[in-house]
Amino acid sequence: MAITYWVGSSNHGHISNPQNMLKDFIQQNYWATDINLKNRLNKNILAALKAIKINDRFSVSSLRNRYQEVDVKVTGTVTGIDDAENGRLEIAWDENQDLYSGIIPVGTKNENWHQTLFQVTTAENITLIFPDSMINKKAARISSNELEWKRPSGMVGKATTKDSQEAQFGYGLDEWLFDTSKLIDGFHYGFLEPIRKGQAAHANKTYPVWLYSTHGITKKHYWIGEIKKAIVIDEAEAALIKKKYQELGWLKQMEGEITSSGENAEGFSDLTGFNLFNIKFKPEDLILNKEVVELADTHPVNKIKKYTLTNFTEAFIVGK
Questions:
Q1: pTM here?
Q2: Among 28, 85, 218, 274, which one is most buried in terms of CB atoms within 10 A?
Q3: What is the spatial distance between Cα 258 and Cα 25, in angstroms, rounded to a whole number?
Q4: Could you read off the pLDDT of 113-143 as tens digits, one per residue?
């Protein structure tokens, strides 16, 4: 069943004298309401509680500025619903959180931020409150690499399609994707081939990106990890970053790493900014598997053509 997204109030008690329960919610890994659920006036809250499922996403909010603005205080995943009809849910709160704060988001009639509990239903608000939600998540292929994607590793496992970057030059432009030793204003800049195909449409957008690679000979697919917040940069920023890499000597270093791998670095330094860098992310947003995970022949990546940016779904989750 599809994951749904919920927002609950941080307060108990009457609106004129609210008791903020946030600290207890976080410390005890739960969310609860003290509203009388047997009262027919609260049947919508009871119905919502009954609809919540394990693995649904949940956030706790607090209204301010005469109820014109909202702060999302914490986000998490529902882990227990046994006591839901009594107003209590078990929640595993996220460790690293990107929390919304600002004007109450406009939504449908069901998205009432003054309620004790409601479901977030519009895609725009889901991505605003839950930035790592599946509705916004993408799957992207990266080149095969034997050196943990910190520098080019040669032709082993590379794509053999004649018109591909890898087949022509022996390296992919994403083979430095996890070399987070080179930071500019706290960001690592990298390249994703699936982004390049729609660069203008994706510019200045942020996506959680699930990463996989495909061995050019065996055609086996491997899950590598994910970037929690990959920010697609625009043309001006790409040009600026190339210039800074040149000034710092990093571009020359990358060129040397290509030749050290035994491949052809001709034309590398002439590539435009977009063809060297099209995303940025902070190192803490990079989550890699300890070892790459081979994907089953039935996994959805088997149906993805070449380097295509694909919408992530529950079917991609390994172990499901």
A1: 0.77
A2: 274
A3: 52
A4: 889 999 999 988 998 899 888 888 999 999 9
In contact, 278 and 194? CB cutoff 8 Å: no
* Site of tokens 């005890």: 28
Q: Which residues make Cβ contacts (< 8 Å) with residue 62, sequence separation at least 6?
A: 9, 10, 11, 20, 22, 70, 71, 73
Residue whose C-alpha is closest to residue 9's, from 83, 51, 77, 67: 67
DSSP 2: -
H or E segment to which residue 136 belongs = none
Tokens coding 154: 């040669």
Q: Is 44 helix (H, G, I), strand (E, B) or coil?
A: helix
Asked whether residue 1 carries a pLDDT value surpassing 80, the answer given is no
Q: From its phi and psi, is residue 87 left (phi > 0), alpha (psi between -120 and 50) or beta?
A: left
Return the SS3 of 185: coil
| Among candidate residues 197, 269, 195, 268, the one with its CA nearest the CA of residue 233 | 195
Residue 44: partners with Cβ closer than 8 Å, 6 or more residues away: 115
Q: Report d(CA 287, CA 285) in Å as an integer.
A: 6
Distance between CA 222 and CA 296 in Å, rounded? 9
Question: Could you give the C-alpha distances from 127 to 45, 75, 105, 234, in angstroms and in order?
Answer: 23, 13, 11, 21
Query: Over the chain, what is the mean pLDDT?
Result: 92
Q: At which residue do the structure tokens 């430095």 appear?
A: 176
Is residue 320 very low, low, confident or very high in pLDDT (cuts 50, 70, 90)?
low
| Structure tokens, 290 | 């300890």
CATH fold of 5-129, please? Answer: ph1033 like fold (3.10.590)
Beta strands in the chain (DSSP E): 5-9, 11-12, 19-20, 30-32, 57-64, 69-80, 88-93, 101-103, 117-120, 138-142, 183-184, 187-190, 206-214, 221-232, 279-281, 286-294, 310-311
Residue 7 and residue 61 in contact, taking contact as beta carbons nearer than 8 Å: yes
Residue 38's CB is within 10 A of a number of other CB atoms, namely 8
Q: What is the pLDDT of residue 124?
A: 87
